[in-house]
Amino acid sequence: MKATVLLVLLAVGVLLGGWTVPAEAKISSTQSDTLALPMGVSVKFDAASSPREVSQSIKIMMLLTLLSLAPSAMIMTTSFTRILIVFGFLRQALGTQSSPPAQVLAGMALFLTLFIMAPVWQKINKESVQPYLEEEISQQDAWDRGIQPVKEFMARQTGQSEMALFTELSGKEKSADVSQAGLETLVPAFMISELKKAFQMGFLIYLPFLVIDMVVATVLMSLGMMMLPPMMISLPVKLLFFVMADGWTVMVRSLIMSFSA
Prior knowledge:
Blueprint: H1 2-18, H2 23-32, H3 51-68, H4 70-76, H5 80-94, H6 102-133, H7 139-157, H8 160-170, H9 183-222, H10 230-244, H11 247-260
Helix pairs in contact: 5-6, 5-9, 6-7, 7-9, 8-9, 9-10
């Protein structure tokens, strides 16, 4: 956390420093009433003096490439997918159109993911990152230790049928310990399992609101109010029911407990 804050402050300082107007520019701008703007940004590559410097440059480029793929890894290997899909089903079941907005639901899903995945990431930091920074283990050992907690998390959430499907399609032998399977098999099986569980939870979410819609529609038909849209009556009823049942707390608790199983 301290390193992240330091990098942010450093970036802000660089940006502010890069936009500082020289004294000559200030004088000329005062005289001509024009604003001096930077003409461009140049990138310079120095020649490497040793093979070690070349390898370090390649590692930096690979790291930047991996950072660009970080959002995909965040979605594919964490609890983010299930949480966001369940929130989407909840909004559709309530019938509130675009409320809460998609940005709010994505933000809630992100912070719930951070809460759920915190023990996994703390274990990675303790067993992999810190020993590597202290030069106690090699890069390969750091990768093996760091990826294992993530694989264990995915293995706990992956169904047997999904794992058996991708194991069969890959032509590999089924392992007794799912966490020892390769990422090329475990990740897609985990994703399918997450979609399956999210849709199951979505079905359960829909049931009480569907009952409310049916009751309201039946009452309106019995009263002869055929021209009155049932949604106008059922929407406030569903909102009242959801608020009185403390729906958000129940929903979040159910989502978190579904990952601890």
